[in-house]
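R.M. (postdoc): so does anyone remember the format we settled on? I'll just put the structure tokens first.
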């Protein structure tokens, strides 16, 4: 949303996860005046939550078109060819831009740079692998507790020395 990409007025949002990343993107683009066609089941991970009914209603009121039980077969400069997963029929969708809401990737370049400089590190959170916040918080806590010297350890011992999350 940093305006790095210049989108056409008609946009297809492919929501790989069915969570707020795709839903929120579709919502924001629709509010900004883009004609949006989201993933076949927008917000599948948000079902049976407080957002389950207001979200699709709001997207509908913004003019978002829903194409259900389908997959994008092809993307060209004229838009996409959508394949029905029900009857295998194909339909064109006129659009100038395709927005992908996909899974996260681990971003560990800083950790690698520190390792190359022989800096003691503990790699946690999304640097190890994409995670939801509770898992990253647990990992952070585990790493922090590993830095506390135990009663049996000498006070001069390096707490990173025996850490299972530490790069060796």
């Amino acid at each position: 949303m940093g305006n790095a990409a210049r989108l056409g007025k008609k946009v297809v949002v492919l929501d790989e996860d069915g969570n707020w990343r795709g839903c929120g993107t579709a919502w924001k683009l629709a509010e900004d005046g883009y004609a949006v066609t989201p993933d076949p089941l927008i917000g599948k991970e948000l079902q049976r939550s407080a957002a389950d009914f207001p979200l699709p209603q709001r997207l509908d009121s913004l003019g978002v078109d829903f194409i259900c039980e389908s997959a994008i077969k092809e993307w060209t400069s004229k838009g996409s060819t959508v394949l029905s997963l029900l009857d295998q029929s194909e339909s064109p969708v006129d659009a100038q831009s395709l927005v992908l809401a996909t899974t996260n990737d681990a971003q560990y370049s800083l950790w690698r740079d520190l390792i190359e400089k022989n800096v003691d590190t503990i790699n946690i959170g999304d640097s190890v692998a994409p995670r939801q916040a509770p898992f990253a918080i647990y990992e952070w806590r585990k790493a922090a507790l590993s830095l506390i010297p135990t009663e049996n350890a000498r006070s001069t011992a390096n707490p990173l020395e025996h850490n299972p999350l530490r790069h060796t």
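R.M.: ...and that's the designed sequence above, right after the tokens. Also worth knowing: The chain has a mean pLDDT of 76. The chain is about 25% helix and 20% strand.
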